[in-house]
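#onboarding

Welcome to the new folks! Below is a worked example of what a typical request in this channel looks like: someone posts a single protein sequence, and someone else replies with the predicted structure as tokens. Don't worry about understanding the tokens yet, we'll cover that in week two.

Example request:
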Amino acid sequence: MFAVGAFAQGEAGTSKAPPPAKKASPEERAAARAERKAAGAAAIKDQPPGEVGAVKKAAPATKVSAEEKAAARANRKAEGAAAIKQAPPGEVGPTK
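Example response:
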């Protein structure tokens, strides 16, 4: 019964470690680094939008003035206040 477990683990005394790798020269390391960098840049360009790490969209070309921002903020605030007033009693929210 114990012999089955021993044979399932492989031969005794064998090493499954990979052979030692030779040291790479600085030129080889620089060439490999440049190749990986180019491959990474190409992968980012080919990545569909919405993926993690995607290139962010550029800011809109048209600028909005401070007055327009203030008017939009006031409009949103008024709409929110009107929505709160129309909420049925018993809803969670500010008291009257």
